[in-house]
Amino acid sequence: MDIDKVKELVRLMVDNELSSISLRDGGEEITLKRPTENGVATGGTMSPQVALMPPQLAMMPAPPGVPEAVVALRSESGTAMPADDVTVAIESPMVGTFYSAPNPEAGPFVEVGSRVSASTVVCIIEAMKVFNEIRAEVSGTIEKLLVTNQQAVEYGQPLFSVRPD
To answer: How confident is the model at residue 52 (pLDDT cuts 50, 70, 90)?
Structure first.
């Protein structure tokens, strides 16, 4: 989806104090959600969070106890940033145990700064004694590692933050 369309949707949300907006255009779908307090949309100073479908690139608040997963149009100070500074999350497609490397003696699949393509294996998640290779499904650069090796992960939990190409 065109970044200018995303910027315009963000402006529309902020100007009209919307808590969420969804748009489907052919095979593309975008859902923008603003952080809420007790289910009520906050004022125009909060930055929206973005969910792009498909694949598993939703930028959503992290579950309790998990570091903030995505820099979603927000700088370190919490002030709004241009929409072209967006990162996306690679999420866990299942419940299981996260492994950063193919075996204990090997180096990690990816590290901060690693370039990935849609087909790049970024980690393994073990579920019910089955080791599942997880692919990036996005091209870009790994910005943050959001989980640690051998950590239990939940379905939809952000694993990596990626700055798309």
So the answer is: very low
What total of structural domains would you count in the chain?
1
Is the Cα dihedral 5, 93, 74, 115 positive or negative?
Answer: negative
Q: What is the pLDDT of residues 94-141, one digit of tens each?
A: 999 999 999 999 999 999 999 999 999 999 999 998 999 999 999 999
Going by C-alpha positions, the residue among 164, 68, 148, 56 that lies closest to residue 108 is 148
The amino acid that residue 144 corresponds to is K
User: 71, 53 in Cβ contact below 8 A?
Assistant: no
Q: Whole-model pTM above 0.70?
A: no
- DSSP-derived letter for residue 134 is E
Question: What is the domain extent for residue 88?
Answer: 3-164
CATH number of the CATH domain containing 131: 2.40.50.100
More confident residue, 56 or 95: 95
AA identity, residue 161? S
The amino acid at 83: A
Q: Extract the tokens encoding 52.
A: 């792009």
Distance between CA atoms of residues 59 and 113, nearest Å = 19
In terms of C-beta density within 10 A (0-12 exposed, 13-18 middle, 19 or more buried), how is residue 38 classed?
A: exposed
Helix, coil or strand: residue 152: strand
